[in-house]
Write a structure and sequence with these properties.
The protein has 67 residues and is an alpha/beta fold. It is built from 2 helices and 3 strands.
């Protein structure tokens, strides 16, 4: 099976579903890179911080571009 590298563009910083989608890709042995497009990350819950840490453990990244 081919390993995919997927960038998930998140237009609004309050939509965290893209981060969960990247986690699902990582579980299936793909690389997921959610990118928050408009500004910095919002204050996160412990649950979302754990998801981001899990993505990093599986060799993915969560990125931000903008302000």
């Amino acid at each position: 099976m081919e390993t995919l590298k997927v960038y998930i563009l998140i237009a609004n910083r309050f939509y965290n579903d893209g981060i969960r989608s990247a986690l699902g890709l990582a579980v299936e042995n793909h690389y997921g890179y959610p990118v928050v497009m408009n500004g910095e990350f919002p204050q996160m819950s412990e649950y979302m911080a754990e998801n981001i840490a899990w993505i990093a453990d599986m060799e993915g990244e969560v990125l931000s571009c903008g302000a």
